[in-house]
Amino acid sequence: MSDELALTARLSFNKGGASVTRAVNITVDVTGDAYTHQVQAILHTEEAAIVEGAAIGTPGYVWIKNLSDDYFVRVGITGSYTIKLLPGQVAMFPAAAAIFAIADTATCNVEYIIVEL
What we know:
With 117 residues, the chain is an all-beta fold. The protein has no helices and 10 strands. The protein has a single domain, classed as Sandwich (Jelly Rolls), CATH 2.60.120.
């Protein structure tokens, strides 16, 4: 079987006469059949490994949302925090390595889904 994972990204901007809309749909072949979907508390005092679950061999794609109303969370792969999620923001990205996060100022909950590659 192929194309087991479907991903959609959509952006629409319209302000002051300037506008742009873009939507991309892709499908991805995955060899595994495992995924993790949970909420995890992310501390501000130390980095936390995002729990992938025992069944996930290699993480493929990650969808993550900062559930905090007040603070941001930094997310990255193997300790390099390249994504900053403000309160309520969402990111989706490919990840073939361990995923880490650290909160700003206070503990934040994040909801995430990781699909095995």
